[in-house]
Amino acid sequence: MRSLFILLFSLSIQPAIAQLNTQQRIDSIVENGIRNGAFPGAQVFLKKGEKILVNKAYGFHTYDSITTVSLSDLYDLASITKVVGSTLALMKLYDDGLLNLDAPFSSYFPDWKKHSKKRKLTVRELLAHHGGIVPYIVYLNKITKRNQQLKNRWVSDEHSKKYPTKAYEGVFIHQKFKSYVYRKARKSKHSDKTYRYSGLTFLMIPEVVERLSGKDFETYLNQNFFERLGASELLFNPADKVSIERIVPTEQDNLFRKTLTRGWVHDENAALLGGVSGNAGLFANTHSLLPVLEMLLNGGEYKGEQFLKNSTVETFTQIQFKENNNRRGLGFDKPMIDNDTLSYEDSYPSPLADPSGYGHSGFTGTFFWVDPATELIYIFLSNRVYPTREQQAIYDLNIRKAILYEGLKMK
Asked: How many other CB atoms sit within 10 Å of the CB of residue 240?
């Protein structure tokens, strides 16, 4: 399949297409994605300096074309949680002198002291995905029988002291499951220090935040950031807090939840931990995510209030191990090394992206990017995993990259 960029480029030589403004060109990119089954709908926000280029909802919640997407609807952010949840919390702890980036992670999470190699890995190395940790462990396998039925030992259909953690309606997880998660992560395979994207360590971040701050992960984020930023609809477990009709569904889950997943985190590991996790779990719309990104772009300041030191923002959003061909910042994704020398197809996130830029993507079809050099903020939210995670058109068409490219080239 020809990439959407190539298609648009070929069309751009035609005078009528060349006259389209940025909003119209982005409209055509998103609408082409919907027509080709990349996602049933989306929200797009694109701002450059003080000028808002796009602020729009497209399509429907699902392909039945019944419920149109509104700008107030909430999407599952998936791995964007690693940045606007885990990383943000650690930035504040670092700001307050409670976290040393070059200290062993095991000094904050003592369970890892039991592993001869993992006990030496630093916070910096793990946040930059430079620890050689396995990318993911499917913890769902632990509680599922071969016939895909849930094991009674780990799961109950009723809440109790023994089964306190709600993973979905009528699904409650054993109190010892979290300990199993931590133990399995500690014993997981480990390679030499090298760039290897892994969400595993982020499962432990909420525990670290609570130990250092004395507050649970969700409370810490709400009190230090979300409530003060006015991001009241940047939420964990939104089904408990807003109308279910406003939450865009994700996948038709035939393995775990046996129904259409809506209002509960798509990621199974985060779900088994009660929906509040460091690797996934946050829901938002573009408007509630925007204040966090504006605060970061402004060096930790938002509407006259300083949330983080400018030096902290710079530290976390800088590339950490360039000499080892690792493009990552601390939690944040970064452009490919020597990105401006690469072709459009090989570049990330765009050949026009400045080295100072940072962002993150999410498995459900979400993405954000901040480009300080051009004062650009870009947010793309979709449910590309509907009806199943096998949907790959968002990647085949390079939709998120094509939109960012349009924004970056805008003078």
From this structure: 11
What is the number of other CB atoms lying within 10 angstroms of the CB of residue 67?
A: 16
Q: Decide if 77 contacts 283 (C-beta within 8 A).
A: yes
SS3 (DSSP) at 49: coil
Instruction: Tell me whether the omega of the peptide bond preceding residue 249 falls within 30 degrees of 0, making it cis.
Output: no
Structure tokens at 84: 């606007």
Measured distance CA(181)–CA(139) in Å, rounded: 7
Residue 73's pLDDT band, with cuts at 50, 70 and 90, is very high
For residue 190, what pLDDT band results from cuts at 50, 70 and 90?
Answer: confident
Token couple for 135: 């990318």
In this prediction, what percent of the chain has a pLDDT beyond 90? Answer: 86
Q: Using CA atoms, how far apart are residues 275 and 398, in angstroms rounded to an integer? A: 30
Tens digits of per-residue pLDDT, 135-177?
A: 999 999 988 887 778 888 999 999 999 999 999 999 999 999 9
Q: Nearest to residue 29, comparing CAs of 409, 404, 408, 411?
A: 404
Tell me how far apart the alpha carbons of residues 368 and 376 are, in angstroms, rounded to a whole number.
10
Domain edges within the chain: 1-38, 57-126+199-385
Please tell me the pTM assigned to this model.
0.94
CB burial of residue 51 (10 Å; 0-12, 13-18, 19+): exposed
Mean per-residue pLDDT for 274-285?
A: 98
What CATH superfamily is the domain 57-126+199-385?
A: DD-peptidase/beta-lactamase superfamily (3.40.710.10)
Burial (CB count within 10 angstroms: exposed 0-12, middle 13-18, buried 19+), residue 214? exposed
What is the number of residues in the chain? 411
The secondary element (H helix, E strand) that includes residue 33 is: helix 22-35
Mean pLDDT of 93-103: 98
Q: In degrees rounded to 5, what are phi and psi of residue 307?
A: -90, -35
Of 220, 226, 175, 183, nearest to 204 by C-alpha is 183
pLDDT at residue 32 is higher than 90: yes
Query: What is Dmax (Cα atoms) for the chain?
Result: 68
Per-residue pLDDT band at 19 (split at 50, 70, 90): low
Task: Report how many helices (DSSP H) and strands (DSSP E) the chain contains, helices first.
Answer: 16, 15
